[in-house]
Predict the 3D structure of the following.
Amino acid sequence: MGSTSKQVTIEFLQGFADAWTAHDIDLLMSFMSDNPIFQLSSGPNIDGMKYSGFENVKQGFQAVLDKFPDGKWIEDSHFVAGDRGVSEWTFTTIDNEGIESQVRGCDIFTFEEGKISVKNSFRKIII
């Protein structure tokens, strides 16, 4: 990475996690680079659903927020190593029948110029 002023920190990743739980799409996008990639943990191919470009990533993020209007990302922890980072989290939501569900997952990030350029999501599946 370039100058230390553009180094991503654990606090930066915590702010990103908090923006998810706040369902604040504009705040979420303020953490993203100009030409980001978002890979969901599920989708039509081995890499999940992939969104490329600022507006497409914004639409992908909004689709997740819309699908889970009460969703919360909690019990999170983060680390940064140069231009890469990881956030681990528990996602909780309540379905239409009032039943709470929880999923453990993580995001693997690539950073560019102090912003997130790639957000690649993974999750555990309960069987």
Q: What stands out?
A: The first helix runs from residue 10 to 22.
